[in-house]
Design a protein that fits this description.
The chain has two helices and eleven strands; from the N terminus they run βαβαβββββββββ.
Length: 169
């Protein structure tokens, strides 16, 4: 399964529209996950022309976007044998006991996700923490809080293995 990752689009604040390069980069994805700070549903509508979309509500999202059926504070997805959380802010282990996983599979909390896709920080991150893959694709419009072309991500899950690529637009 190929999943397009995007976060912190901040439209129309950081840009007037999604960069057209996103459509090309996501042309063969099965699903798109937006990790919040969307602002307007038209962003999700545009992405949905490419593939189905789910989104996390961001700390700057309010009004109509929160009523959009694609938007929740957290999505918990089972994809290709992996449990994925889609959230806006990075969950820290001390705030989420299920992330306090042990060093071996036998000690792993059964409620812990395998993958956490998040945003909020406007910076890219791909990091394994105690067997949980944390992914922040940055921002296509406001990377490192600078307006202009930024980054998106591609998450491939195949045969129980997850691989992430961060793409510079």
């Amino acid at each position: 399964m190929r999943i397009g990752l995007v976060t912190d689009t901040h439209i129309p604040g950081a840009a007037q529209a999604l960069p057209p390069q996103i459509a090309e980069a996501f042309r063969d994805v099965d699903l798109i996950l937006h990790a919040g700070d969307i602002y307007v549903s038209s962003v999700l509508d545009e992405l949905e022309r490419i593939a189905p979309v789910l989104a996390a509500s961001g700390d700057d999202d309010w009004g109509n976007i929160l009523a959009d059926k694609r938007v929740k504070s957290r999505h918990v997805l089972k994809l290709e044998g992996k449990t994925l959380w889609l959230v806006h802010e990075r969950p820290y282990p001390y705030k989420f006991p299920s992330l306090q996983t042990g060093s071996s599979p036998e000690q792993r909390d059964p409620d812990a996700p395998d993958i956490v896709v998040f945003g909020h920080e406007h910076a890219t991150l791909v990091r394994d923490y105690k067997g949980v893959l944390f992914v922040n694709s940055g921002s296509p419009t406001f990377l490192n809080y600078r307006r202009g072309l930024g980054t998106i991500g591609i998450l491939d899950i195949d045969s129980g293995q997850a691989q992430v690529r961060i793409l510079q637009l």
